[in-house]
What does this fold into?
Amino acid sequence: MAKSKKNTPALGADYSNKMRSRYAEKVKPSGKIYTKSDRRENRVKGDMKEDSKENKFEEARYQGGCLCGAVKFEIYGLMRQIINCHCGQCRRTHGHYAAYSSVEKSKFKFIRDTGLKWFRSSDKAKRGFCQECGASLFYERIGEKNISIAAGMLDSTAGLKTISHIFMNDKPDYYLIEDELPKYKQYHDNGL
It folds into this structure.
């Protein structure tokens, strides 16, 4: 049975002309021809949540997390170089001295924090750990703009290096420190 011309679907240029005339009044073309790089620049990247608006077009510089994955995070800013802390609290928390870097909280974002718990270790600070695997992750001085991250929790430490030791008066005798890095008896201005 032959199809009548009335019921034959419009194809190709006929269809385009038909649609153009139907929507001509509603859609006004801008006249700008967009290139591939224009489209790439307009692509939205990252999370659109209110608390991370400043990071939505910036790629994470560092990523990290605990052993079991119940705590994962991304860092968007420059991190401070690593400081080794030999205080009694760090040794009891980590089982040895602690190596910490630091970043502004506004440049830090949790990807997953289902396992995260905080312990108020003193009237000046709290420590973050994973309640699932026991990893000691963070040190945060109350009211400060930075958060300290245990360097071992970072997936990559590219560009970071140890720059000093603090709380050397608390260091136990069972290990030696023979490097040439600055060593401070207590807390230092560049501390955690």
The longest helix spans residues 12-23. The two ends are 84 Å apart (CA to CA). The chain has a mean pLDDT of 79.
